Hints:
Family: Belongs to the ABC transporter superfamily.
GO molecular function: ATP binding; ATP hydrolysis activity
Structural class: alpha/beta
Strand order of the largest sheet: 6-7-8-3-9-10-12-11
Helix content: 25-40%
Shape: globular
Distance between the termini: 43 Å
CATH architecture of the domain at 5-91 and 173-244: 3-Layer(aba) Sandwich
Keywords: ATP-binding, Cell membrane, Membrane, Nucleotide-binding, Transport
Bound molecules: iron/sulfur cluster, magnesium ion
Largest sheet: 8 strands, mixed
Number of strands: 12
CATH superfamily of the domain at 5-91 and 173-244: P-loop containing nucleotide triphosphate hydrolases
InterPro entries: AAA+_ATPase, ABC_Ni/Peptide_Import, ABC_transporter-like_ATP-bd, ABC_transporter-like_CS, Oligopep_ABC_C, P-loop_NTPase
GO cellular component, one term: plasma membrane
Amino acid sequence: QQPFLSVRDLKVHFSTEDGIVKAVDGLSFDIARGQTLGIVGESGSGKSVTNLTILGLHDPARTRIDGEILLDGQELLTASERTLEKLRGNKMSMIFQDALASLSPYHTIGTQIAEVYRKHTGASKKEARARAIEMLTRVGIPQPDVRVDDYPHQFSGGMRQRAMIAMALVCDPELLIADEPTTALDVTVQAQIMDLLKDLQQEFGTAIIFITHDLGVIADIADDVLVMYGGRCVERGTKKQVLGNPQHPYTLGLLNSMPALDGPVDVPLSPIPGSPPSLLNPPTGCRFHPRCAFAEKVAGGKCSSAQPVLEVIDGRGSACHLETSQRDALFADYAATA
Ligand code: SF4
Ligand code: MG
């Protein structure tokens, strides 16, 4: 069976005054219907760029895109702007960290949700308003038939985030891209929004790409996980595989820099030393080598000269020169001392 969304060898390069920024540099993944793929990485790892590319939101004059993106069998990279317009909001939609950026301050919440619905369904104003109230009810806005006439500034941050979710889901999209949608919220509201997304996914069977820098969020929501570093995927697998048995030093580092999911919160954490790579001049060889605690364990300076290949078998793989046996021993030691 064909995956619902399939991304093949995607490359997204931007022309800037300083040179070519290789924001995404050879990325492949699939998602099935109703599944959640968590994409995790630091800022600048290419996760947001990947998803804006799926939605077709880059300036074509300054962006060079190669590869293939198939949504339900349809190629998106060669699709016309008209086709993409039809797909956006309808078959695929997106929620962001900042609801204020996707809601207009000049129109009521209800009007904005209704407009998206009318654009894609041709419904009457009356039908669309009823639909907006229905969606606000579904995302848990109290008194939806009254609040539908509020402006975004009359909503709290958490309510705006819910309204944005209502707007994203108003046309029953089959793919929802969620880019750090809870990062700006306090922990309680964050948990409520995560629960809401899970419920809505159950109800609508939506496939979700969940982008985050937070492995705790991944642990909560993802089925499969893709770890990005410097525009590439360095590790992928099921959530259990990636979080329970990481195979890449970067993933191991991320896990060590977050509180244990079920452990005490006050254990000292060890952030990964160094900073994310330049995408103008990425490090040679393995892009992680300047920060990797294990680079010198690989013979012949291979880490700084040869780029490791991501080999994926049954959805599981990592891109690292360490031998499997060597890695198991080194990671066990690392865990013991960290
Ligand atoms: Fe570290 Fe080398 Fe593996 Fe890269 S290839 S993650 S530098 S050990
Ligand atoms: Mg981002």
